[in-house]
Amino acid sequence: MTLSGFVIGGAIPAICLGLGTVFMRASLGAGASIPLYLAVVGSVVALLGWAAFIWTGGAILSVRPVLLAAAMGMTWTLAIACMAYGMGVLKLPVSIIAPLTNSNALIAVLVGGVAFSEWRNLNLSLVALGTLLICAGATVISLSR
Question: Which pTM was predicted?
Fold first, then answer.
């Protein structure tokens, strides 16, 4: 992996998603309902997405990529709604929500490995070690409260 791939594909998204979780907590703490929170976040994502689509001259739409993007949107919305419910209603702190939800990397590696045959390029012993460390780390951090 190149340095630019690490920064653009990993570090910046990690920082943004981490800050996003903190902004979620702050928004809910300031009185936003879960539906309002989802609507505002979704509207901003849509606005920025359509602006980028128009600015870059966007590709011609076809059904399959649109449906796959919609599936991603639905799964992401459900995840964010559950996180918001955990923070807003159940009063779970960021220190519990963030480490547990960031274990999503394990699901992505598993499903991506099968769906895209990426398992052929994986060192399975390192994947197993990483899985153990992610689970242990998420558990330890979430218990630190």
Answer: 0.84
